Amino acid sequence: MTEKPKFMMQTYIRCTQDALWDALRDADAFQHYDFLEQRAKREGDNVTYMMPDGTVTLHARDLEVVPKTRLVTSFEPTWAPDDPPSRITYEIAVEGDFCCLTVLHEDLTNDPSDGTGDGWVRSIAGLKTWLETGKPAHFGGAYLMEQM
Hints:
- Helices cover 26% and strands 38% of the residues.
- It is an alpha+beta fold.
């Protein structure tokens, strides 16, 4: 029996399948919707995420790529270097003028209510806002950094 995901989120975004896929895969797009205003750098199947000051926060590696419908990546946070990588699955389904985006974050070593869940809610809200309005969506980053 397979273990259930530790965190799941689903939302509908008014955008094309291509736009959503590109936003998830294009490292340059990330800076427009990340709530912490992070940047990303892609080198082949590997992506490095960093704060505006250059501090690396996360590494990810593409594990499975089914263009425009499914992306599975590792999640390797620098704040927990001894933890094994967790796994993220993004699934895209087209429904008329909308795309249904499902995010599954599995193999977490922490309780999602400790911040992981809030981070996903903010990240996906930023993605939705940016894709639907074309305006950068940065919110909550300063507040969250003050709490750390």
